[in-house]
Design brief:
The complex is a heterodimer.
Chain A: H1 2-19, H2 26-43, H3 49-66, H4 71-102, H5 109-117, H6 119-125, H7 128-133, H8 147-150, H9 158-163, H10 166-179, H11 184-196, H12 201-207, H13 215-218, H14 229-251, H15 254-257, E1 263-267, H16 271-281, E2 287-291, H17 298-308, E3 312-316, H18 321-325, E4 330-334, E5 337-338, E6 344-347, H19 350-359, E7 364-367, E8 388-389, H20 397-416, H21 422-433, H22 444-451, H23 461-479, H24 482-489, E9 515-516, E10 518-521, E11 528-531, E12 534-536, H25 541-548, H26 558-562
Parallel strand pairs in A: 1-2, 1-4, 2-3, 4-7, 7-11
Antiparallel strand pairs in A: 5-6, 6-10, 8-9, 11-12
Helix pairs in contact in A: 1-2, 1-3, 2-3, 2-4, 2-14, 3-4, 4-10, 4-11, 4-14, 20-21, 21-24
Chain B: H1 7-26, H2 28-47, H3 53-67, H4 73-90, H5 95-114, H6 119-149, E1 156-160, H7 165-176, E2 181-186, H8 193-203, E3 208-211, H9 216-219, E4 225-228, E5 232-233, E6 239-242, H10 245-254, E7 259-262, E8 303-306, E9 313-316, E10 319-321, H11 323-334
Classes of the chains: A alpha/beta, B alpha/beta.
InterPro entries (chain B): eIF2B_alpha/beta/delta (IPR051501), elF-2B_alpha_N (IPR042528), IF-2B-related (IPR000649), IF_2B-like_C (IPR042529), NagB/RpiA_transferase-like (IPR037171)
Family (chain B): Belongs to the eIF-2B alpha/beta/delta subunits family.
Pfam families (chain B): IF-2B (PF01008)
């Protein structure tokens, strides 16, 4: 019990760390997620694969919601779920095979019938590819066959039984039978498994874990641990190893993609891009143009690091990207996430770069590890892909703070006075608080604060920027008139929200300063992904999804999970 | 029936006719089997309003297996192939029907290649799968509805063309999940299927606007996404659908609006049209009124081909696919 509590505490702690952004970046988040999941798989008892899947899904959903914008967390959860599902399927397949060949005499009526009817689907499933991908046109007719045989699945398992493929269902049914304590069945099957799973035994022993043989005897006392667990843990370890090597395998491809004397354009700072270019510079002579990446200006750091690595580097302003594009041979950038349609969520500004590249027919290449591959579509209501930072990068924080204080005063004054003579009171408050030009910006504090709640597909940036350029330039000029003008038409506290209901206050300094972190770059602007598994086209992303995730895990939230597909 | 057929296909058709005649002399059971198939096909279609051509074809072929007296799987495959050809002669321009027949034939040949049991069990298994398929197809529609309804956002406007059961199902699903959106439906001349669609949407209380087919480009800037069904999905990921779809796709592309297709995977056909000329030609009479000069020609195709570069995504029961994924799925089955 105490052990269980420890894990729960650890999970909470991990969620808190995600929430507080104490871990930044996809890779560290992915690793942390896997660590927690591995701990859960190792230390908690689960009698069946279904129970384990259930638990991982719940935990995973919790972790993802702690930091929704970091899609790598959910991706890793789905990867682990996929590993468990594959293991369960493999086990079922291993069991079925020796069963039908070595002990045909032992089979009872129903089991024999099951083997008979399942033969076609097994035959079709025998190619590893079909097994790997679940539902496909090639097994369309076999899906959901034999409803009579798969119907009596215990209610505890129904969610999965409903959505699973036949192979999974029969697996679950067998497990359920074992859990129910069918004395003869499991023992017999365990014997069959001992013969069939011979190639896995050494692996088990090297792991130092409990071997699968005494499971049959434990059966009566405590619920037995699902025996596929060791393989699952092994696979999770491999996955963690894989994460460690992602950057290395991407950078190694540098030489293949960069030719001599090319001009590479990039924007902002990205570790992967930096290492990629550095690796390529060992063998190739080329130039890099770095756009500074306002408002973070991490392009400055990138340019410095590249120059230190001995690469000819040019630093340009973001606004010069289009002008410089004509000279570039290739655009190389990093990304935050790859979405299911092949589009990417990338640092803000990259959509513009991609459009410029398209205009000049320059290849737009995205460097991305496959841990960033998400099965969600950009239109998906579950997807929150943007995050807004404080306005400090764009506007001096002192100005913001001052304006915010004034705004608070205004709001307090407005609230204090009765609505009937609000006009006069607000005017007085504005008049008394207006001290110099900063009064013109008096609403940017709340605006920026509220902008962090905005999200969604159509970025608030466009509208926000428009409001910014128009009202900011006007601010100084109107500042003097602020007191009178604002007072005349003043209403309650102005909290204009981006994307929310328009509650524009006619204060002249109505100013939004949204600073989104990410852009969505649609797939048709992307020429190539360079992943740790090699180059991939955006149109191939759907295939990668079927390789890495089970379809039932695309949505981690419970509501979708319960539904029948 | 022969007179109505296009001249291009005449040669093939007459060849098939002679073959059929030859079989009549040699094998009278084949003729009855073919008749059974055709009758079952029509029965299936009339029995259920929701029945798709491909599913009806598979039901018909299942009926053939039931009645088959062939002693070998080879013999049965031959009978099935003949019956499939007979079915396609009923409606030679229907690609969905062709796709359904091909899908089922492919299953039978694959099974016979892999199965080593006696013919009776093989038959039983095939019949079981064939009968089960009708259920699969309704489930397919439900899956598509669930996957596709996630693409419909609140307060968006969807443009659709003609009547499609799966599109209707998808919109119903989105609406029942509490999403507020409106639908613009084209009239769908000459058969007026758009009006059917509008009626059905209205019955569901979904706000619907009816526009002329020629209004599509005009209305496009008010539209957030285009969603159409498909008669068939071809190998390169393009679709064959009611006439006018291509025009809508081009308008959507010009206005940078997403163009989504909802289609069940049994509509995936092994065709590779390069242009409109590669579609089976149809000659349907069209009433254009009495004012037509006598020497003016009238061309009235009922379908067009929309190339894959116009399509954003295909929502199928196999998942949400990019057009490139279609050939991958077909290769899985046919290679």
């Amino acid at each position: 019990m105490s052990e269980k509590k420890d894990i729960d505490e650890l999970l909470e702690e991990c969620c808190a760390v995600f929430r507080r952004r104490q871990i930044e970046g996809s890779l560290p988040c992915a690793k942390k997620t896997l660590d927690v999941l591995r701990l859960i798989v190792t230390n908690k008892r689960h009698s069946t694969a279904a129970a384990l899947i259930d638990e991982i899904r719940t935990v995973g959903y919790k972790m993802q919601t702690a930091r929704p914008v970091e899609l790598a967390i959910g991706n890793m959860v789905r990867r682990v779920l996929h590993i468990i599902r594959e293991e369960a399927k493999q086990e079922q397949y291993d069991e079925a095979k020796p069963g039908s060949f070595t002990q045909p005499a032992n089979q009872e009526g129903p089991e024999a019938a099951r083997n008979q009817t399942g033969l076609l689907s097994k035959a079709l499933n025998s190619t590893s590819r079909v097994m790997q991908r679940g539902l496909s046109l090639s097994n369309l007719l076999d899906v959901g066959i034999d409803p009579a045989l798969f119907a009596p699945v215990p209610s505890a398992l129904t969610p999965i039984a409903e959505v699973g493929t036949p192979a999974e269902r029969s697996e679950l049914m067998e497990r359920a039978a074992a859990a129910a304590g069918g004395a003869g069945g499991p023992g017999e099957r365990a014997g069959g498994h001992g013969g069939g799973g011979a190639e896995r035994d050494p692996e088990l022993e090297s792991q130092g874990g409990a071997s699968s043989k005494p499971q049959g005897k434990q059966n009566k006392k405590t619920p037995p641990n699902w025996k596929g667990k060791h393989e699952v843990i092994e696979s999770i370890n491999e996955l963690i190893d894989e994460l460690d090597h992602i950057q290395g395998s991407i950078t190694l491809q540098g030489v293949e993609h960069i030719h001599a004397n090319e001009v590479i354009l990039t924007m902002g700072m990205s570790d992967t891009t930096y290492l990629f270019l550095k690796e390529a510079s060992k063998k190739r002579e080329f130039q890099v143009v770095v756009a500074e990446g306002a408002p973070r200006f991490d392009g400055h750091l990138m340019a410095r690091k590249l120059a230190d690595a001995g690469i000819t580097t040019t630093l340009i302003a973001d606004s010069a990207v289009y002008a410089m594009m004509a000279r570039a041979n290739k655009v190389l950038v990093g990304a935050h996430a790859v979405l299911a349609n092949g589009g990417v969520v990338a640092p803000v500004g990259l959509h513009m770069v991609a459009l410029a590249a398209r205009r000049h027919s320059i290849p737009f290449v995205v460097l991305v590890g496959l841990h960033k591959l998400s099965p969600l579509f950009p239109t998906d209501p579950e997807l929150l892909y943007n995050e807004f930072k404080g306005p400090g990068d764009v506007i001096d924080f002192d100005v913001v703070a001052e304006a915010f204080a004034q705004q608070q005063q205004l709001a307090a004054a407005a609230a204090a006075t009765a609505p009937s003579d609000r006009d006069g009171a607000a005017g007085g408050a504005a008049g008394s608080s207006s001290s110099g030009p900063s009064a013109g910006n008096s609403s940017d504090g709340p605006a920026a604060a509220s902008s962090s709640s905005a999200s969604g597909i159509s970025l608030a940036l466009a509208g926000g920027a428009g409001a910014f350029s128009s009202s900011y330039s006007a601010a100084a000029a109107v500042a003097a008139a602020a007191a009178g003008g604002a007072g005349g038409a003043g209403s309650g506290a102005p909290f204009p929200t981006v994307g929310g209901p328009p509650r524009w206050d006619p204060l002249p300094g109505n100013l939004h300063v949204p600073t989104p972190l990410f852009d969505y770059v649609p797939p048709h602007l992307i020429s190539l992904f360079i992943t740790d598994m090699g180059g991939r086209m955006p149109s191939y992303v759907y295939r990668l999804l079927t390789e890495y995730y089970a379809r039932d895990d695309y949505f981690l939230s419970r509501e979708v999970f319960g539904k029948e597909r | 029936m022969l007179q109505r057929r296009p001249s291009g296909n005449k040669l093939v058709e007459s060849a098939a006719k002679t073959q059929e005649g030859f079989q009549t002399a040699g094998n009278s059971t084949q003729v009855t089997l073919n008749e059974i198939a055709v009758r079952e096909f029509h029965d299936a279609l009339s029995r259920d309003d929701e029945m798709a051509f491909a599913v009806a074809a598979i039901m018909a072929l299942t009926a053939v297996i039931k009645r088959s007296t062939a002693a070998t799987l080879m013999g049965m495959s031959k009978e099935l192939e003949d019956a499939a050809q007979a079915l396609q002669r009923v409606n030679p321009t229907n690609i969905s029907l062709k796709a359904g027949c091909e899908l089922f034939l492919r299953y039978t040949t694959r099974t016979s290649a892999l199965e080593l049991k006696d013919i009776e069990t093989a038959k039983a298994r095939l019949i079981e799968r064939g009968l089960h398929f009708a259920e699969t197809s309704t489930r397919a529609r439900q899956t598509i509805a669930e996957l596709g309804s996630r693409f419909i956002r609140s307060n968006c406007t969807v443009l659709t063309h003609g009547y499609s059961r799966v599109v209707l199902r998808l919109l119903q699903q989105a609406f029942s999940s509490g999403m507020q959106f409106s639908v613009i439906v084209t009239e769908g001349r000459p058969d007026g299927t758009g009006i059917t669609m509008a009626k059905k949407l209205d019955a569901e209380n979904i706000p619907v606007t009816l526009v002329l087919d020629s209004c599509v480009a005009y209305i496009m800037d008010r539209v957030d996404m285009v969603l159409v069904g498909a008669d068939a999905v071809v190998e390169n990921g393009g679709i064959i659908n009611k006439l006018g779809t291509y025009g809508i796709a081009l308008a959507a592309q010009a206005a940078s609006k997403p163009f989504y297709v909802a289609a069940e995977s049994y509509k995936f056909a092994r065709l590779y049209p390069l242009g409109q000329a590669d579609l089976p030609e149809e000659r349907k009479p069209l009433d254009v009124g009495p004012m037509l000069p006598p020497r003016a020609n009238v061309i009235n195709p009922s379908r067009d081909y929309t190339p894959p570069q116009c399509i954003s995504l295909l929502v199928t029961d196999l998942g949400v696919l990019t057009p490139a994924a279609v050939s991958d799925e077909l290769i899985q089955l046919y290679v």
